[in-house]
User: Which sequence fits this backbone?
DNA sequence: AACTCACATGAGAATGGTTGTCAACAAGGA
DNA sequence: TCCTTGTTGACAACCATTCTCATGTGAGTT
């Protein structure tokens, strides 16, 4: 059984620069909400920088593996991506109405997670912590 | 945009008791790991209490809506269900090797989540907090 | 610049968990 | 027993994501 793979260490295997990845990265850098691969693919098409859907998926995965973008799953199982301001470990407070996202840190929650894991003898612990709510604009 | 629906309050609309739901509930009450709908469907078949796959899905959703079972998504997007010991709000520490699950509470983390939301002016806040690791049997 | 070659791309097919359809069933009140 | 209505199950349909593979393109090398 594998509920949550450990696919961490993705040593920087020289990725080749392409127009497609550049366009995607540029688009994401100017967007603050979490968007799905399909959303991004559509926006690229509107904008003229047409990129194949499979390529969007592949690059998003690569960028996520490299830690360049954050991923989370919507309630209906769709993956959504976002280019965050910091490379450091953090979590998100997302508006479920408009997608507005705030990056949050929680030293307390980090130590809590580590402590709980230790007390139960678990090792190689990772965690998923996301907050959802309704922002002030609603 | 809807990243995380608020589908909470599902007033107890009298659900009609059936052999199928009983078999499913019974199976889940004797299982401690998180299992997928397909896993459960297969186990029911082995055991003789054959139940249609669609029915398994429907009942799991109903049970989840009623708060009778907990749901979480595996890394590959599959929903997995578990009948927990308590009805009270809690989280999980799951072994990614064998699925062994420990129910954990975190008053500190609850207040942290609420506080972060308040500071950013978000309302109707919910959170997703799950811990994954490797248990002592590995 | 021409040559090479491994990596990247894209159009479309395939995958697979989940949901929809709808006729046959069955719980429970009249 | 009869009716009404929620429930079931076999199978089709959905749809996000992955796979396939022929073609394209970085970037060294000569
Ligand atoms: Mn953290
Ligand atoms: Mn909590
Ligand atoms: Zn909002
Ligand atoms: Zn284990």
Assistant:
């Amino acid at each position: 059984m594998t509920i949550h793979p450990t696919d961490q260490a993705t040593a920087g295997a020289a990725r080749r620069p392409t127009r497609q990845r550049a366009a995607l990265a540029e688009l994401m850098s100017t967007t603050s909400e979490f968007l799905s691969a399909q959303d991004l693919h559509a926006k690229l098409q509107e904008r003229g920088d047409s990129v194949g859907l499979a390529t969007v998926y592949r690059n998003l995965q690569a960028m996520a593996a490299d830690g360049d973008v954050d991923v989370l799953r919507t309630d209906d199982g769709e993956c959504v991506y976002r280019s965050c301001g910091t490379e450091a470990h953090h979590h998100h407070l997302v508006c479920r109405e408009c997608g507005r996202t705030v990056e949050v840190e929680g030293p307390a929650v980090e130590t809590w997670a580590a402590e709980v894991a230790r007390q139960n003898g678990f090792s190689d612990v990772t965690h998923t912590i996301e907050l959802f709510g309704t922002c002030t604009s609603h």
Remarks:
- Chain A touches chain B through 46 residues (CB under 8 Å).
